[in-house]
Structure formats: structure tokens, C-alpha cells
Amino acid sequence: MKIKxxxxxxxxxxxxxxxxxxxxxxxxxxxxxxxxxxxTLAPVLVETEPSVSSDIPEVTTIPAPETTESxxxxxxxxVPVTSEADTAEETTEEPPVIxxxxxxxxxxxxxxxxxxxxxxxxxxRYPALTGLDDAAKQEKLNTTxxxxxxxxxxxxxxxxxxLISSKTAVSYEITSATVTYMGNGLVSxxxxxxxxxxxxxxxxxFAYSIILxxxxxxxxxxxxxxxxxxxxxxxxxxxxxxxxxxxxxLLSSVSLEKLMETYKYYAQYNDxxxxxxxxxxxxxxxxxxxxxxFFAEFSIPLxxxxxxxxxxxxx
Length: 315
Prior knowledge:
about 325 residues
């Protein structure tokens, strides 16, 4: 009888231990989950201050479920992400059909301020395409061109209001705005102008450009135009480019190496000269000093430079 009672007590003790391991208890304990088998999670009791070391490694993360569709949907819905892959997909869109190559020049006249009853203005002009068969894409292209023109004004004359406040007359005007190329998925535009400042600074002439993706309406970074700008620099310094604007006597006083010196660290700073395309040429705009007309343009046939470009009218 004693033997049977002992066996019964042992059995009851084992049952109690099993129940304690399977059901939650109250107290200073915390619960963690461990993966058991494939996709099965079970509660495991872990003492907050274990008195003995455990042979089971601590699990600090739970493997993600095999199906992550709901997580993906939630993330993309709340956090839009733009990546190189997204851009690549967008550039595979069909470009709009060019019905005509015509464009208008839009004028945006803004008052800078007034001195002694005389008003001074910023006159921002930019080209606006009119000949595409897709109105939405045409509007996006034109919006990008307009925004670029406004940003150039802000960058070239950031202290306009301060100058007027100090009684220094200043005006800004884009005197020429043209589309230089449109086709092969690209739009290229060029503008030049003058800042007229009534102090020792004098007049400042400048030019800038933009290249756009005809399909997406976005401007294309010059890092996406050039594949090897170092090789293009060598072509320039070896005399392969032809000067097409600026002081005709420029190269008698300034070397080609000096003109390109600003861009020798292009790779570190993504610093490239203003660039645009024509039907047959690549053109770069280089800054010069006051005596040499402020800027000069140099062109090279695309056939000689295409090997160092990622995109071009003939590539």
C-alpha cells in the first residue's frame, strides 16, 4: 500500500510539473516566444533572474513570417520610396510623340523692390513646349523647365532684397531662352541673361542649361549623362572642342587647362559644367572672368564623344 501511495504521489508531482510548464503563472516573470517546428509558436516561461544557466539560447528576434504580403502592402502605402530601380522603370515609359518642334517663351516678371520711386524687376524667361501629343507629359516637362529657371534666379541673385534695402539698384533678366534639341527621349534647353547691379560689381552675364527625360518630364542629372567625364576633360584640354561663344580672344590669355581646372574634382563633388545637346553636338558652358565675357561655350561632335556618354541624341 505504501508503495502504491508513493507511486501515486510521484505521478501527481509529474502531472503538476507538466501543468505548470504549460499554463501562465503570475509573478515577476515574462513571456517570450520561440519558434517550434515550422511556423508554430508556443509560450515559454523565462525567469527574470534565472538562478541557473539555461541550455536554450535566448531569442531576441522572431523570424519574419514566410508570407510578407500584408507587411509589404502596409509599408508601400504609408512610405513612398523613390529608388534607382523606380527611376529606371519610369524611364521605360513611352515618350510622347513630337507633333511639332515649336515652343513658346514664357515671361515671368517679378518686382524685386523700389528705390526712390524707381522699381526694379527680375524678368525670368523660359521655353514652354507646345508640340507634344501627350498634354500631361508636356505640362510636366514645362513645369520642370519653369522650376529650374526660378531656382537659377534664386541661386544667381540670392541677395536681391538686401541689395534693394541697402539702396543698391539691381535687376535680373533672361535675354534668351531656347530649346536646343528634342528627340531620342531627351529635351535640351539653354538660357542666358544678365544681372545689372549699380555698384562696383557691374553687370554679370551668365548662361545655364537643362536636359530632361522626354518620357518622365524630370531633369536628368549630369551624372546620368556622362559615363567618363575624365575622358571628356582630356578631349577638351587636347583641343578637340571648338569655341562657339564668348570672347574670341579668350584662348590667347587663358589656357584650356585653366578653363577646366574648376572641374578636376568632379567625381568627388558631382561638379560638372553646364551641358546641353544640339542635333549633332555636345556643348559645355564654362565660366570666365569679367574681361573675357563671363562665360564661353565649347562644342564637340557627338561622334567624337558618344563613347563617354550614357545618353545623347545619337545614342
